[in-house]
Amino acid sequence: MATLEQVQPTDVPEGEGVRRRDFINVAAVSFAGVGAVAVALPLINQMNPSADVLALASIEVDVSKIAEGQAIKTIFRKQPLFIRHLTAKEIAEANAVPVDSLRDPQTLAERTKAGKEQWLITMGVCTHLGCVPLGAGEGENRGEFGGYFCPCHGSHYDTAARIRKGPAPKNLQVPEYAFKSDTVVQIG
Amino acid sequence: MSFPWANHYAPKHPVMQWIDDRLPLPRLVYNAVGAGYPVPRNLNYFWNFGVLAGAALAIQIITGVVLAMHYAANGDIAFASVEHIMRDVNSGWMLRYAHANGASFFFIVVYLHIFRGLFYGSYKAPREMVWLLGLVIFLLMMATAFMGYVLPWGQMSFWGAKVITGLFGAIPLVGEPIQTWLLGGFAPDNAALNRFFSLHYLLPFVIAAVVILHIWALHIPGSSNPTGIDVKGPQDTVPFHPYYTAKDGFGLGVFLIIFAIMLFFAPNYLGHPDNYIAANPLSTPAHIVPEWYFWPFYAILRAFTVDFILPAKLWGVLAMFSAILLLFFLPWLDKSPVRSGNYRPTFKMFFWILVLDVLVLGYCGGAPAEEPYVMISQLAAAYYFAHFLIILPIISRIERPLPLPGSITEAVLAKHGEVAGDAQAVAAE
Amino acid sequence: MVRPIGALVGLGFAFVLLFSLVVGAVNFIKEPPAATAEHEFHLHPKPLALASNGPLGRFDRQQLQRGFQVYKEVCAACHSLKYVSFRDLHEVGFTEAEVKAIAKQWAIEVPSVNPDTGEPATRKAEAADKFPTPYPNEVAARAANNNALPPDLSLMTKARHDGAAYVHSLLTGYQDQPAELLKKFPDSKTGTGLHYNPYFANLNIAMPPPLVADGQVTYADGTPATVDQMAQDVSAFLVWTAEPKLESRHRTGVAVVIFLLIATGLAFMAYRNVWSGIKH
């Protein structure tokens, strides 16, 4: 261990000098650590959605061809979107439900635009684990409450697309939208 | 490892003890790059470049893995996906510029590492295997860098792929089938792009594996040193940690400063504008050049302009590959028992001529194929081959080396005796 | 064995190289390469001072907006900007609402599909869209432009040496072919449909002079729209389209380099500490 003997030079006094040197070594290693963390941040952040994904695209849909009682499925921001033309009976059914009894209390009026209560526009993404519920397509199972039914884990939504039975915690999400005319709706 | 006075690993923490008893990885690291590896005390800054090359490989692998999350290896969208990275991916521009410039910096440090080995005779016994594995790494790096340059699918990518695979077409009889096989078609297209991407992702890990062998082979005889003489005893060495970890830490800082300046303030300086034009199979750029680190070899390739028994193209291809392959024979071409160029005056002179020669070749390789560059590269290429294949074997026989110091410690003390009164001057390195 | 074989190989390569050198030299003397008009009359771009130049450069947003106006009113008819999105214009200083309006009013529409028939159709652009290309494909572009292809401008200032200066010089460099050139190279007369421009690599460019008169566009900020001003502004704009992250690159760079200088200074002191007392 002859080399190590040279590490402790006899002419340097113990105490202050040694502590100062330790401080510099610790500072140098700490700086390297801070640098490593700073480098890690962009490497992690790059996995977040990129600007083009975040860019809010909007779509326009002509709803004039959707007959009463029918629904269509379209794509909005890479996810399914349901547009449903409710019948008067369905609207009445939805309004008849006491809001307090709901898991996610909301009225149909809160989920549609004033004067356009017959147009129910929701994301087609089950709030449980993200499957696409059935009920928008012709002849599909609409579940026990006549709205949508998610076959993955058995969530039943009513005619206002509110969760009524099954594991889903929330109602089907209503995206931001506005009617540009009586028949054209802009979503997003 | 092979020095009896090397420090022995003694785990300080019970957890390390527990791990070491079951998987002696802590011990392996300790003996490889820790206090258990005795290193000559007199290494100069040229010995930093091995660690820097390792750091550059790490930068390339990390940024590369991340870029691969966003890149699409398809001729229709490859170029656009790179622009997507540059514009929309969070910090994407930084990652891509780091990867592109990182390749250049990898080559800069590896070239300095190679020339350090050439000057100090690091290729000589007993370190031949270290040298040979280093050359394998170099070849793998060249292949990786070439395939990586194809991926952005710009004009230089496309035409580089076409020209370099075209080299294989120079091989008699089987050349064209080989070229078609390499490309998976008759010209670079999706098939080529996809396989280049696959191999470009694979090879760096092969490089990392060979790096481990390279370091393993180095640890058998231990590191060489600027005097080239063997370690004689404990007084000649210091433990790698903390002595060379500290020095390499400082070296890494300097490296990163220069790297950051290029990355943030001149990220396209080492690139070629034509590669910002999407690949177009119908139009060749006026002036095709590879990346700068291939220029010396590209100059050798283009220096053969006359058919002489064999076609000029074949001569060029043979010469270009020979220029690298001859380095594999270097330990047996230079038989001088003295390692360090510091004690070999004739060798030293020719070494500096070689450095100049390679720089001239590099300059000509980047220049257009016009006179006088072609003639200059012909002279320079001739010197390159003569240097390794004729001059080195001759000087290693006839040269009379300077007297060697008795030991590393003696050389160190003699140096400090000359620099009186300022024994710790860093400038003395 | 290595050395005799090596010497033979070395002599072989050296001999062929020197033989090539002699043959090349003889040819060079016998038939010196003919001078070309491009070689003698091509000009390097005039220097262009932009706010974004240099390691600490920042964009002049007023200028970028003027440049965008020039692109929109002059260049966009033929040149695409296909890697840039309308939403990116926000960084040039337009508000979200302005960006939406610009996208909506863009003269070229975005290809889409008629939802009823499935036939190809077009729709108005949106902020999230990339700039639509003026021609559906290369064939159409060539057909409309006398067989010349107007290149995409997104990356133009990075795809040419001295990019911004090149664009500026090219736009202001149109002139009559010098008489001296025609005297020296009578065969090099600019062909029909081409325009003499000494800043273009082969001197004859297919693009007609795009900026022809002062006041060709009317700047909202009152800057006099001279031809030179318009050329400078659109060059500045194309620096931004090619490198929209330039400012964050410069900012990050300054922070990183300062950090590294301190860290490396500390590393140096630590290195000196560790080695103090060891002669080396």
UniProtKB/TrEMBL annotation, chain A:
Write out the annotated subcellular location.
Cell membrane
Which SUPFAM superfamilies does the record associate with it?
ISP domain
Q: What residue ranges are annotated as transmembrane?
A: 23-44
Task: List GO terms (cellular component aspect).
Answer: plasma membrane
Please tell me which top-level EC class this enzyme sits in.
Answer: translocase
Q: What does this protein do?
A: Component of the ubiquinol-cytochrome c reductase complex (complex III or cytochrome b-c1 complex), which is a respiratory chain that generates an electrochemical potential coupled to ATP synthesis.
UniProt protein name: Ubiquinol-cytochrome c reductase iron-sulfur subunit
UniProt keyword list: 2Fe-2S, Cell membrane, Disulfide bond, Electron transport, Iron, Iron-sulfur, Membrane, Metal-binding, Oxidoreductase, Translocase, Transmembrane, Transmembrane helix, Transport
- Domain Rieske, chain residue ranges per copy: 88-186
What EC number(s) does its UniProt record assign?
A: 7.1.1.8
Q: What else is known?
A: The Rieske protein is a high potential 2Fe-2S protein.
What protein family is recorded?
Belongs to the Rieske iron-sulfur protein family.
Native species: Edaphosphingomonas haloaromaticamans
Any keyword Lyase? no
Catalytic function, reaction form: a quinol + 2 Fe(III)-[cytochrome c](out) = a quinone + 2 Fe(II)-[cytochrome c](out) + 2 H(+)(out)
* InterPro entries the UniProt entry points to: Rieske_2Fe-2S, Rieske_2Fe-2S_sf, Rieske_Fe-S_prot, Rieske_Fe-S_prot_C, Ubiq_cytC_Rdtase_Fe-S_su_TAT, Ubiquinol_cyt_c_Rdtase_Fe-S-su
The record describes its membrane topology as: Single-pass membrane protein
Automatic annotation (TrEMBL), chain B:
Q: In the UniProt record, does the keyword Transmembrane occur?
A: yes
Q: Please state the protein's primary subcellular location.
A: membrane
Annotated residues that bind heme b b566 are located at 113, 214
- Which family is this protein grouped under? Belongs to the cytochrome b family.
Q: Name one GO biological process term.
A: respiratory electron transport chain
Entry protein name: Cytochrome b
- A GO cellular component entry from the record: respiratory chain complex III
Q: How does it assemble?
A: The main subunits of complex b-c1 are: cytochrome b, cytochrome c1 and the Rieske protein.
- Encoding gene (name): petB
Enumerate the Gene3D superfamilies for this protein: Cytochrome Bc1 Complex, Chain C
Cytochrome b/b6 C-terminal region profile domain segment(s)? 230-406
What is the role of the protein in this entry?
Component of the ubiquinol-cytochrome c reductase complex (complex III or cytochrome b-c1 complex), which is a respiratory chain that generates an electrochemical potential coupled to ATP synthesis.
Organism field = Edaphosphingomonas haloaromaticamans
Cofactor note text: Binds 2 heme groups non-covalently.
Q: Where does heme b b562 bind?
A: 99, 200
Q: Where are the transmembrane segments?
A: 45-73, 93-118, 130-151, 157-175, 196-217, 250-271, 315-333, 349-369, 375-395
Its required cofactor(s), as named, are: heme b; heme
Q: Name one Pfam family in it.
A: Cytochrom_B_C
Q: Where does a ubiquinone bind?
A: 219
- Could you tell me which residue ranges the Cytochrome b/b6 N-terminal region profile domain spans? 15-227
| UniProt cross-references to SUPFAM superfamilies, sorted A to Z | a domain/subunit of cytochrome bc1 complex (Ubiquinol-cytochrome c reductase), Transmembrane di-heme cytochromes
* Annotated InterPro entries: Cyt_b/b6_C, Cyt_b/b6_C_sf, Cyt_b/b6_N, Cytb/b6-like_sf, Cytochrome_b, Cytochrome_b_C_euk/bac, Cytochrome_b_N_euk/bac, Di-haem_cyt_TM
Indicate whether Magnesium appears among the record's keywords: no
Q: Where in the cell is it found?
A: Membrane
Q: What molecular functions are annotated in GO for this chain? A: metal ion binding; oxidoreductase activity; quinol-cytochrome-c reductase activity
* Membrane topology note: Multi-pass membrane protein
**Keywords for this entry?**
Electron transport, Heme, Iron, Membrane, Metal-binding, Respiratory chain, Transmembrane, Transmembrane helix, Transport
From TrEMBL, chain C:
Query: What keywords is this UniProt entry annotated with?
Result: Heme, Iron, Membrane, Metal-binding, Transmembrane, Transmembrane helix
Q: Which residues cross the membrane?
A: 253-271
InterPro entries cross-referenced by the UniProt entry: Cyt_c-like_dom, Cyt_c-like_dom_sf, Cyt_c1
GO cellular component terms given for this protein: membrane
CC cofactor note: Binds 1 heme c group covalently per subunit.
Stored PANTHER family: CYTOCHROME C1, CYTOCHROME C1, HEME PROTEIN, MITOCHONDRIAL
So which cofactors does this thing need? Answer: heme c
Compartments reported by the entry: Membrane
Task: Please classify the protein's predominant subcellular localization into one broad category.
Answer: membrane
The molecule here is called Cytochrome c1
Residues holding heme c: 75, 78-79, 207
Report whether DNA repair shows up as a keyword of the record.
no
Please indicate if the UniProt record lists Heme as a keyword: yes
Q: Where is the Cytochrome c domain?
A: 62-171
- An MF annotation (GO) of this entry: metal ion binding
